Give the backbone structure.
Amino acid sequence: MRMPMMPPQNGMRMRRICRVHVFKARLVKNYGLMKMDPYVRLFLGPNSGQTPISEKGGKEPRWNSRLDLPFPRESKMLEVEVYDSRTLGDKKIAWMDLDVSTPNYLSQPEEKWYHLSGAHGDKEGIILLSIHVLTVALPQMPIVPPLVRCLCFVFVLFCCILFFILCVTDFFFKLMQGLLPYQPMMFPPPMQQMQPPQMRQQQQQPPPQPQLNPQHVQQLKEMFPDLDNGVIETVLLSSGNDFNKALTSLLEMQQ
């Protein structure tokens, strides 16, 4: 039996859904050493939904969850599967199938207990569900004019081409920098550029040595007759031709 469709409103589109309230379950066995963490998966054709996990729910888990599944035309069977959440892989512990295309689910929803199948046959437990097939209005998606879509495509294509050109230019610029090593230019100091060649030659010549005073040499020789003239002249030159400094140095040498 096909459900009558409501007339669409302005800017709205109609859609048929299967609304399932998953309340709780009563299972006959706790699989595992500790309390199970059950949850429910619903499948209606290619569409699916999942409830939250009832942590430590054990054999009497509670969910109180609502799931809305789009109703496909090619499928009418609702698959209900109960899983135990585990670290190394979830385990399916119970399941059942319902034909939701019957008129019973088109009227007002009501809570009902359904039998689950599993390792113990059709006595794996029971689950409390409320199933209702209804038609809802969804907002109509805006239609983009073809010209706007064409302009958007051209803009995106232009940005891609520009980005490619910038990347290629940057690549060749870095490549040329690697092939042509940097050679710094050598510049002479500023003072040498301003000075004429004659002045530079005069600056490069060593300063003239001070002339020895023969009187100082003769006086020091009389005071230190045991020293050679060469030693006296060397000490006098190192003292800057200063008689007093040379005398002090020679006295220190004689001590």
In short: Strands lie at 12-27, 38-44, 47-50, 62-70, 77-84, 91-99, 111-118, 121-139. Residues 1-7 have pLDDT under 50 and may be disordered.
